[in-house]
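Fill in residues.
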């Protein structure tokens, strides 16, 4: 989990936070232009993710700055996205108020490519009342016998929990889910308390 800055600066000014999503036709340099714009405004890039889906470029970014800087980011990003045929959404947010979690959960699963696996994976966490912090899911081709390839589906997910969660029971339930759905999976627990 990210260690985020305070909600006020040393001069007492409130720090503002903005979540940005942009999507459009992929082309060389588009992500650089977006990052350059944010940096030149003076905002801090706290987190970002870029992915390609088909021929579409997608960007998610979490930034912070003064009220003036974040307002400039909203205005200039809207203009930039319109000029570059990018769909965009932005939303101001606050830092989470949750206490620092005790454990980071890293789950990885792989199985034959079939419908419903993402639903199974997310339902497992939802049934345990655990928020998923990040997740990637993708279909890959792997070499099989007789010069054939097999489509496999992989999911990686990260979540955080506090010390009230029974990790042994969580591991057993995860293993049971994998067994019931013919999934190969691992669930690792990393202590985040120093």
């Amino acid at each position: 989990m990210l260690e985020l800055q305070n909600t006020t600066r040393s001069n007492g000014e409130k720090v503002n936070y903005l979540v940005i999503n942009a999507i459009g036709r992929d082309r060389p340099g588009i992500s650089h232009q977006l990052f350059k714009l944010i940096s030149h405004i003076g905002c801090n890039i706290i987190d970002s993710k870029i992915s390609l889906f088909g021929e579409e470029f997608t960007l998610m970014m979490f930034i912070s700055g003064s009220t003036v800087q974040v307002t400039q980011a909203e205005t200039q990003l809207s203009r930039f996205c319109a000029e570059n045929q990018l769909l965009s959404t932005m939303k101001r947010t606050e830092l989470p108020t949750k206490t620092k979690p005790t454990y980071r959960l890293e789950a990885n699963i792989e199985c034959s490519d079939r419908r419903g696996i993402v639903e199974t994976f997310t339902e497992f966490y939802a049934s345990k009342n655990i928020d998923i912090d990040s997740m990637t899911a993708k279909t890959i081709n792997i070499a099989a016998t007789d010069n054939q390839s097999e489509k496999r589906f992989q999911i990686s997910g990260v979540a955080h929990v506090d010390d009230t969660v029974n990790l042994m029971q969580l591991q057993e339930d995860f293993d049971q889910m994998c067994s019931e759905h013919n999934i190969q999976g691992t669930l690792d627990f990393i202590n985040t308390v120093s």
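DSSP finds four helices and eight strands in the chain.
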